[in-house]
Every structure is written in C-alpha cells, then in structure tokens.
Amino acid sequence: MDFLRSLSIAASGLKVQSGRMRIISENIANADSTANTAGGAPYQRKIPTFKSRFDDALGAQVVELGRIEKDKAPFETKYEPGHPAANAAGYVLTPNVNSLVEQMDLREAQRTYEANLGVITATRRMVARTLEILRA
C-alpha cells in the first residue's frame, strides 16, 4: 500500500511539473508576439500557481496545478513606426516575457520532474526486488 501511495504522490508531482513546463513553453513561444491591431496589448506572460490538498484515498498531501495567473509586469516598448501594431507615436508594445527567466523556470521544472521520476523508478525497483524476495 505504501508503494502505491509514493507512486501516486510522485505522479501528482509529474503532472504538475509537466503542466508548468507547458505554460513556460507557451511563454517562450510567444516571447515575440505583438498585438494584431495598432496600439493593442501583446501577449501577457502566464504564471502557474500550485496548491496542495489532502487526498483522502491516499491519506497524504498531493500537489495540483492551481490557477494560471497573468503577470502584471509592464510591457516593454519598442520604436517601430512601420509595424502594424504601432501606436500613433510609432511605439509597439512587446510581451513582458523574459526568455532568461523562462529558461531558469523551465530548468527548475525539469529538475523537479526528474526528481519525481526518480521516486517512481526507485519505487518500481523496490517492488520488483520485494517480489523477487517473496518468490525465493
């Protein structure tokens, strides 16, 4: 039973980190997305939130992906008078996505994902080893 508990807890971590990586990938993909209309708002960075809840079936805390919030950081401006999204003064608003920050977040999510995957791998080995011992 404890093997199943550890597998379920690690699986919830995998699910959350994969969702986090999806959001970060979306931010990186839209780092240069400007508005379609003149003076419009560009892509706004998304920030994943996490929440923990007590799972009655497992008898343990599990983590879940919470609301996806929009970053309230101001947009950058770039002077490009010929751009279709430029305002009357010739400035284009660019997304508030910093590629370096996104890469750091992505790396952290990847490491956490790998840690949860390591828990699952170790648990599977323990189950296999236990079965070998019981067969002998």
TrEMBL record:
InterPro entries: Flag_bb_rod_N, Flagellar_basal_body_rod_CS, Flg_bb/hook_C_dom, FlgC. The keyword Plastid does not apply. PANTHER family: FLAGELLAR BASAL-BODY ROD PROTEIN FLGC, FLAGELLAR PROTEIN. GO terms for biological process: bacterial-type flagellum-dependent swarming motility. The basal body constitutes a major portion of the flagellar organelle and consists of four rings (L,P,S, and M) mounted on a central rod. The rod consists of about 26 subunits of FlgG in the distal portion, and FlgB, FlgC and FlgF are thought to build up the proximal portion of the rod with about 6 subunits each. Keywords: Bacterial flagellum, Cell projection, Cilium, Flagellum. The keyword Glycosyltransferase does not apply. GO terms for cellular component: bacterial-type flagellum basal body, rod. It holds the Pfam family Flg_bb_rod. This is Flagellar basal-body rod protein FlgC.
